Automatic annotation (TrEMBL):
InterPro entries: F420-G6PD/mer (IPR050564), Lucif-like_OxRdtase_Rv2161c (IPR019921), Luciferase-like_dom (IPR011251), Luciferase-like_sf (IPR036661). It holds the Pfam family Bac_luciferase. It comes from the Bacteria. SUPFAM superfamilies: Bacterial luciferase-like. It comes from Litorivivens lipolytica. GO terms for molecular function: oxidoreductase activity, acting on paired donors, with incorporation or reduction of molecular oxygen. Keywords: Oxidoreductase. Residues 16-238 form the Luciferase-like domain. This is Putative F420-dependent oxidoreductase.
Length: 298
């Protein structure tokens, strides 16, 4: 079963003494090894109450630096040729639709056909308050944002009329021919309908294939109901990172979860190198092992 490999590059700059330029080298090594995609995480600010994180223990203290994804990926774009540039996720409601459309268009101009937007709503009220933006209604804004961006990319001049976003007769160039927009929300009926209307893919919050597999089924039905081919749906799922009895990351046990993920409908499989790479000299071997995994399960 064919699939693509994605790596989340969160935290890997720390292997370079915190220098974000190290991520360019990571991307180059991943590309040389045949890795299909990289993704970055996003926080504009971080509040002190990380204990409110709704998906388990938050992975880092609040003072941890968070590099801005679009900026870093622009730097990576100029130093790579093939690897896709994505996010897992970009908190898009913290940005206006027009600004994000311009950022995406510019990034695509640097990396034509390689940009895949991974969008989400965020979980911190403090992040929206610090940005002067409403926390309530951020999900509906995100879906409108996708529709508005696609209008700006497709038409010149462009018009869009939504409940929260509206404009007439404006230009936003450069514009990509197409940039897929994937979203990280629960695949309930309401969200699946919205995804099928304006988006192109799904980033499951859940790692269990038995759980996200049900979401894939719901989304495929929604695509059919929207008159779209369910085969167009892209799903990037995160592996469940496994650990041995001593608490050490277990690479073999981790990659053995992939067949069930593919059976559940994943088209991209994402893994976090930070669990397995402790020194920059380890990247070549790690990426080599990943490409062998791809051959094994494709």
């Amino acid at each position: 079963m064919s699939f693509k490999l994605s790596i989340g590059i969160y935290g890997l700059e720390n292997l370079y003494g915190g220098n974000p330029k190290g991520l360019i080298e990571v991307a180059q090594k991943a590309e040389q090894a045949g890795i299909d995609q990289l993704s970055m995480t996003d926080h504009v600010v971080m509040g002190s109450r990380t204990d409110r994180y709704p998906y388990g223990e938050f992975p880092s203290p609040p003072e941890t630096p968070w590099l801005e994804p679009m900026t870093i990926e622009a730097a990576i774009a100029g130093s790579t040729d093939k690897i896709e540039l994505s996010q897992g996720i970009l908190i898009s409601p913290l940005r206006s639709a027009a600004l994000l459309a311009k950022q995406v268009g510019t990034l695509d101009a640097l990396a034509p056909g390689r940009v895949v937007m991974g969008l989400g709503t965020g979980w911190q009220r403090e992040e929206f308050e610090a940005s002067g933006l409403p926390f309530a209604g951020r999900k509906s804004y995100m879906f409108e944002q996708i529709g508005a961006m696609k209008a700006l990319w497709k038409n010149a001049p462009a018009s869009y009329q939504g409940e929260k976003i509206a404009f007439d007769d404006i230009y936003c160039r450069p514009a990509p021919e197409t940039v897929p927009c994937w979203v990280g929300v629960k695949a309930n009926e309401e969200n699946s309908k919205a995804i099928a209307e304006v988006a192109d893919g799904w980033i499951p919050i859940e790692q269990d294939p038995a759980v996200f597999g049900e979401g894939v089924k719901t989304l495929r039905r929604a695509f059919e109901n929207a008159g779209r081919d369910p085969a167009e749906l892209q799903v990037r799922a995160m592996v469940e990172h496994k650990f041995d009895s001593d608490g050490n990351p277990d690479f073999q046990a981790t990659i053995e979860t992939i067949p069930a993920m593919l059976e559940a409908g994943a088209t991209y499989v994402e893994i976090l190198p930070l669990y397995f790479v402790y020194d920059t000299a380890m990247f070549d071997e790690f990426f080599g092992r990943l490409t062998e995994v791809k051959k094994q399960y494709s």
